[in-house]
Amino acid sequence: MQKKYNAKSMTAFARTQENTSLGRFSWEIRSVNQRYLEINPRLPDAFRHLEPDIRNLLKKQIARGKIDISLSFENSHNDNKMQVNQTVLQPLTQAINEVQQSIIEATQVNPLEILKWPGVLQTNTHDEDAQKLQKALDSELLNALQTATTLFNENRLREGQALAELINNRCQSISKQIQNLEPQLEEILQRHIDKLTQRIKTLTEQLDEGRFHQEIAILAQKMDIFEEIDRLKTHIIEVKHILSTQPDQNNKILPIGRRLDFLMQELNREANTLGSKSIDTQISQTSVELKVLIEQMREQVQNIE
To answer: Is the CATH number of domain 12-80+128-155 3.40.50?
Structure first.
């Protein structure tokens, strides 16, 4: 798909299923937002050795999020007889007997539960054939996982584009709020000074013009919000820049969620300062509108990688 924004969602789902000569299996990947990367593979006992390969594959393509990945497998080689692995069973049986002797209330263990213990059952095949079969199966499983991961990333990218569009729309709304307020700032400040002048004149007949203008200058400086307006505009430009930055030379979309989250904090800081310096209801209303829009953006940013 065509990438308009540089954004991937941390919330996604993908599932693939394949039928091969070696068996029928399916991969399922699901993720939710999280500050760091956490990978939780759930694999059948026979494929636990694939966990390092799975982690390495996902780390190359995913930077943040809680990833749950599960494999279900149905072996088509049912002609192989199963046998009990005595090397595993004997120490397990001894441990069970010791527990039952120490704890009188301990119940008898169901043999079926013992068979579920990892490594108790094994396939009765020649070692060389078993190794070849396992190697071929591992290769097919990892190839299928790559297919599932590709689908998973496509889903993350599609949702990320939608989130970025929502954030961009909020940026435009913030810019519009600033554009509506900015031309009126001089008039608002002058109107406030005029009101203050009239109030002082009603309280005293003798007015020190020099001292009065000095105090007005100090007051105007304290109430000046042009710096906050400029920083708001600068942060909005940076948000749009981050969203639209193209992938690197390896066509890899870099994680941007933390950078956007930092900018949300800075935007909120400026909006709060704007409200604290307010000398007019319109400035106060604009501050409130900005904080609402920023909070809406922040909620969306929490889901971006």
So the answer is: no
